[in-house]
Amino acid sequence: MTQPATTPEPVTIGIVSVSDRASSGTYQDKGLPALHDWLKRALHNPITFEPRLIPDEQERISATLVELAGMGCSLILTTGGTGPSPRDVTPEATLAVADKEMPGFGEQMRRISLHFVPTAILSRQVAVVRGSSLIINLPGQPKAIAETLEGLKDGAGEQLVPGIFAAVPYCIDLIGGPYLQTRDAVCKAFRPKSAAR
Ligand SMILES: Nc1ncnc2c1ncn2[C@@H]1O[C@H](COP(=O)(O)OP(=O)(O)OP(=O)(O)O)[C@@H](O)[C@H]1O
Ligand SMILES: Nc1nc2c(c(=O)[nH]1)N[C@H]1C(S)=C(S)[C@@H](COP(=O)(O)O)O[C@H]1N2
């Protein structure tokens, strides 16, 4: 297990599960536990989680993202509602509250996901910056959370396709958030040498 280079700073992270059926109790939500568990595994930083379980309603999703960004979440991860069906509106709700689009995250997630399912191209997931928050959409399948964040490894743990989380700590540095430190066995963060502490 890698040790953190410096004492890890605390971070507040919003986790948002967007699902009509999970939010109405038709099935048990697996999105929030999957996000929570992956982030606890990946980061040395002490995390305050702000969890939200909401239906696929555009206004509600945008309002939740605005609330979480306003209360100081450096990172907000959503899961669900990225597909083509009429109720899938998470990307629209996310773009509606964006200061800047970060298209590389969506591109890389679809690239990674194609190694797992041919329907990866059906996910319209986006990432944006709002103020000093990075907001990233993940697909709704609970297993897609680790797949996209962590990427693809071979049987020996060697990274074949980098997960998107490798770029998240430096992005958060650049927008003025805390210095995130990852556990290399889960996700090796990349920063330019000049930015590493
Ligand atoms: N929060 C969740 N908890 C558990 N399983 C989920 C969750 N979200 C999605 N899934 C699973 O992944 C599948 C695809 O997710 P998708 O977001 O397309 O759901 P959906 O068909 O739009 O329905 P809903 O919004 O009611 O979850 C679902 O059919 C379900 O099996
Ligand atoms: N890594 C990964 N990406 C994935 C999937 C998956 O199982 N794993 N499912 C795909 C499918 S079937 C769909 S329809 C889209 C959109 O899913 P969402 O509407 O649940 O967000 O994500 C795609 N991306």
TrEMBL record:
Its EC number is 2.7.7.75. GO terms for molecular function: nucleotidyltransferase activity. Signal peptide: none annotated. Keywords: Molybdenum cofactor biosynthesis, Nucleotidyltransferase, Transferase. Residues 14-159 form the MoaB/Mog domain. It catalyses: molybdopterin + ATP + H(+) = adenylyl-molybdopterin + diphosphate. SUPFAM superfamilies: Molybdenum cofactor biosynthesis proteins. InterPro entries: MoaB/Mog-like_dom_sf (IPR036425), MoaB/Mog_dom (IPR001453), MoCF_biosynth_CS (IPR008284), MPT_Adenylyltrnsfr/MoaC-Rel (IPR051920). Pathway: Cofactor biosynthesis; molybdopterin biosynthesis. It is an enzyme of class 2 (transferase). Catalyzes the adenylation of molybdopterin as part of the biosynthesis of the molybdenum-cofactor. This is Molybdopterin adenylyltransferase. It comes from Comamonas faecalis. The gene is mog.
